[in-house]
């Protein structure tokens, strides 16, 4: 146990990469989820079909497979170089979780009572006004608890990026473990605790949102 | 590097062999998680508050930390543990690691099922002087579990997609075969595409099936009793 400071100072070098991937993925995944979720309730069948296809492809295959696929196919097959592997990881994670989260966006929008849409039509609101002022405010509160859950999922997914060579927490943990075999239990317990500490605010957010979404609504 | 259909078709039989290992491992992990999930439910109903609190946080800890790190812990760190440490083969480590991780999710599903059983059913079992065993086996669980079947099915699909994590500790299933092939011939994209296709071919129809089940069950277990 005396080596705990050593382990910590090694592993902590990867904290930046983990947080960077986490924050960028959350931002990109949220944008993708909103665009895809709104597209799936659009009246244009072509747009609906295309996003439906995207969502099913990314939900139907495994994130770890997608991550490997992107890291080999982007530079090799399509000759796309994103500059840094961080962007490959962010792309794979946010496309994957964007697909999952778009289903929450779609589900919540569809869960808003039909009467609300009918009333907005009767009040002669434009399509945009109807979405912006009537449907979305009600749908948003329904999304929030699930959204929080997915943020924790994204955090867990960031541990995969060490597999494509990014130097995150787990990467430095593995490096340390490979030279200090006897201390591997300490290394991985420390890693788990560090991930948990990062997850704590997300857990608190999710719980807060659960109470927010229940407040003032007749169930 | 260009796309080669020749490579694409030639790796299909190889990866198909790995599919059975992936499926077997999924089933084993799922069974472990399904059984172990009851353990968390059991603990959460014990009358000792500190124990409930401790295990509640332990479940939260396992649920919100990466399964990959947990897998590494079980495979690399467990043998180094004093006294209890034993070497595990990759299969067992994967079943334990992923099984324990997902058991914390399964327990939430069971919990939601148990909580949805009408209060009158509990009171009636007490009034009829049923033993604890009879109450759970004959009254509560038969009503709590069936409505959760679609959710349980969903977790089977989710676990199927998490099982490739086991390739990182050396379980030779689909992803591992694809990566090995890639390392040998420097052709990664084709075998990985085949792996992705196999995942899609299996998980998409199962997801549709679960959707159908869900609709059917929602009709059957209409929330009449809660109203």
From TrEMBL, chain B:
Limits of the ABC transmembrane type-1 domain: 19-210
Domain of life the protein comes from: Bacteria
Main location: membrane
Gene3D superfamilies, alphabetized: MetI-like
Subcellular location as annotated: Cell membrane
GO cellular component terms attached to this protein's record: ATP-binding cassette (ABC) transporter complex
GO BP of this protein: amino acid transport
A Pfam family reported for this protein in Swiss-Prot or TrEMBL: BPD_transp_1
Topology relative to the membrane: Multi-pass membrane protein
Residue stretches spanning the membrane: 20-42, 54-78, 84-102, 155-179, 191-210
GO molecular function (one): transmembrane transporter activity
Keyword entries, A-Z: Amino-acid transport, Cell membrane, Membrane, Transmembrane, Transmembrane helix, Transport
Record family assignment: Belongs to the binding-protein-dependent transport system permease family.
Stated name of the protein: Amino acid ABC transporter membrane protein 2, PAAT family (TC 3.A.1.3.-)
